Amino acid sequence: CLPPAAHARVSLPRFSSHMHLTVVVPELIWPEPGDRTTLDALVCPALSALLSRSRLQRRPPQSFEATLGDACGLPAELAYAPLRVLGEKNIVAAPAATWLCADPVHLRLHQEQLILADGSRLAITPDEAQACIDELNRQFVDSGCFHLGATERWYLQLPAERSLGDFTVLPLSVVAGRRVEQQLPAGADLRWLRSLLNEMQMVLHEHPVNQRREERGQPTINSLWLWGGGQLPNPQTSEIRRLWSDLPLARGLARHLDIPCQPLPAHADALLAKAIPDDQALLVLDALQAPVQYEDADAYRHALHDLEGRWFAPLRQALLTRRLRSLRLDAPTAYAHLRWQSRPQEQWRFWRRSSSLASIAQSLAQSRT
User: Fold this and answer.
1) Please, which pLDDT band fits residue 334 given cuts at 50, 70 and 90?
2) Going by C-beta distance under 8 Å and a sequence separation of 6 or more, which residues neighbour residue 36?
3) Which burial class, exposed, middle or buried, applies to 111 when counting CB atoms under 10 A from its CB (0-12, 13-18, 19+)?
4) Cα 325 to Cα 21: distance, rounded to the nearest angstrom
5) Which of 32, 34, 204, 337 is the most exposed place for a label (fewest CB within 10 A)?
């Protein structure tokens, strides 16, 4: 093993420098550092080497949505609902309207606590979703208009005279699979919205869709998670010049910033083939989020190994061969908002031993306490 001074004699391959790439990958590190059964099974040499030879910056914890906005250079306080609507393919967003994400959820009581399951866990059919949306629009015609983005993504467009004021509700990504304390702020200015939510819950409870679901032993759609409320922010610019993601929020952000958003490629090589020299690009890989939210260790291991082969290994190789000029991983996790940054020369420091993902998780947990 060479001493540190030997790096001056390492000859780097000479390729033309290409883009700067930021990858947003929520829940990259398994949140239970003591779970050796899960962590010891994670054999991801490319990711381990990439993280071990990158500069780590810890930031205060934040949601996936806030991290995505931050990666685009946008302020922390964003109205995510109108931005997500902007990325839906079957909804025409009124520019000045006030929107709420009104996502279908199932709340269940467990040990005197409410646990939330989001729409991705409910297997809602298109017909079920449309029937519920139609009934909500019949019952609450004066409260706004409900829209269907997808079976798990619903919206409420509020009347022009309605204002949300200081509306702060955790994004669904933060509460999915977890304990819920309150669904809406307790302020007097939102009493009308809490009353509306209670009435919507009663309508959903009595709806034939839920009666049939209960008969089949399926979890019912017994509430909505109202979050991300507000209006579209003023037009803004970003250093990001192109974005790859299949998520409506990412598409909406790209449209708002007037930059192209392309579907997620099958693997890194397909993305790198479209690289433009010195471009600033953003990639969103969210496959680990749901397994962590619902504590599914098997699904997490499978997803991480898949990301290792299709993304982390070729992206690290692209750094080593200077097909990437720089790589940044932004990972909102239970430990913190973690940011790893690397340039080609740092990945060639092979005297820096790779730490296992188990060691990285334990180190993050120790520095958190």
Assistant:
1) very high
2) 358
3) exposed
4) 8
5) 34
